[in-house]
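Before the break, one more example. Copy the sequence into your notebook; we will annotate it together after we see the structure.
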Amino acid sequence: MFPQYKQKNQNWNPQQQNSGFNQFHGKKFYCGNTDKLEKDNCCFNHIVGLPISEKTGLTNPLFDYQKMIVDKIFYEVEKDPKNRHVWVKKATGLGITELILRLMLWLCVRDNRYRNSQMCIITGPDLEIATGLIERMKRIFENINIFIKNKETVLEVNGVMIKAFPSNHLETYRGLTSPKFIFLDEGDFFRESNIRNVRDTTERYIAKSNPYIVMVSTPNKPDLLFQQIEDEEEDKTIYRRLFFNYQWGLNKMFTQEEIDLQRVSPSFDREYDLKYSGKIGNVFSDLDITTAINLGEEHKDLEINPNNLLLAGVDPAFGSTSKAALTMVELNKELDLVRVVLNEEWNQSTPSEIATYMFRLHAQYPNNLWFYIDGSGRSLINEAKVMFNESIRWEKEKDVKHYSARIIPINFVTEHKKLLEHCHYLISKGRVAIPKSYSNIITSLRTAWAEEWNLNKDESVANDHLDSLRLALREIKFAE
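Here is what the structure looks like once it is written out:
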């Protein structure tokens, strides 16, 4: 949702600018008349001109979901810590960033109460995004011949200083005197290393100047800023949380035909249906992943043959917040395929609990099941070896006899590139069948991002599941 704008007037006059703001004094943000699309002096949005769709060129009113956001921002209950704090998880293309930028401008000019204070926009770690949002705010006023001089990331409107900060450069953000509005735009795409700093710095201003805090984002991958807030218990979070998937924009911002076309994209669930699935990676092609899923669905009802070779890869948990994963595959020589037949995940489980699960799984398939475990998970390996009555005197894989041992440690540090390349090779050759019910594995494949087979775990999602899969596939070979 973007307005159309006139060309910039080179004859800028600050007195003319200030007098131009007088027309907004006492005006509502939006009059609520959705039938009126032309300019009028009834409210801020009709004075500056309603948003115009860049896609269709049509003027849009403010829609119901946009009104809900505004209402939540200004809804206050006595002594409620959620007052003034709104979190919005949204589909792409709903025009919500434009809405918040307009709301900030209106707060600057509806009266003079915010003069000599600040408003802040926090963006991703890209200066161009920060400067782009400031330019968008300028052009809203330029549409009615109010021209504002500004620096690259700073805009002064009616005595209010609006500044945009990339999320990785917050030094001056921490030292503001009186911020009245803080807008975190696409906050789920902030770098993981910046999230704690952004949130701590933002929320410390609650006691200092009681600002409006609005977070808006399309979801990115799991466990980042937005899922952290979404998972907070209702009586402990300080945010009123709103969810708007693509359905809110049907016959407003999107047609059903456009949505149907978008559904074929691997990113649809994240971009339009609020799923935390990460960005599309560069390791596995969508065609190869789709082939693996189709093969998995075709053969998902086959019973596991206990006489076939069964291999399980185990990625241990590291630290209190890490997850462990196990993936078991079956080599089916009749089909000339390796089938994924099991995928499990543990959150904050002990090595003993995981080792017990492995021991019970082996009891079901005692003759042909081996476990390949990241060798850095020594506590899990030794727990399992004790249960399996194997020697714990090992330092390297070569210290373990494969013909007698079932627990095989793998030096993941030295092998991880080769393991990813081999996993890619098998999947690209159509040798791996993955039922769609194993969504964590599929997500890990779709989002895997690597350079020279070195997986970038900051960009990829569900890495523990991909690690367990590539460990499970380590010994799989097919005759060419």
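Residues 1-10 have pLDDT under 50 and may be disordered. The two ends are 54 Å apart (CA to CA). Try to locate both features in your own notes.
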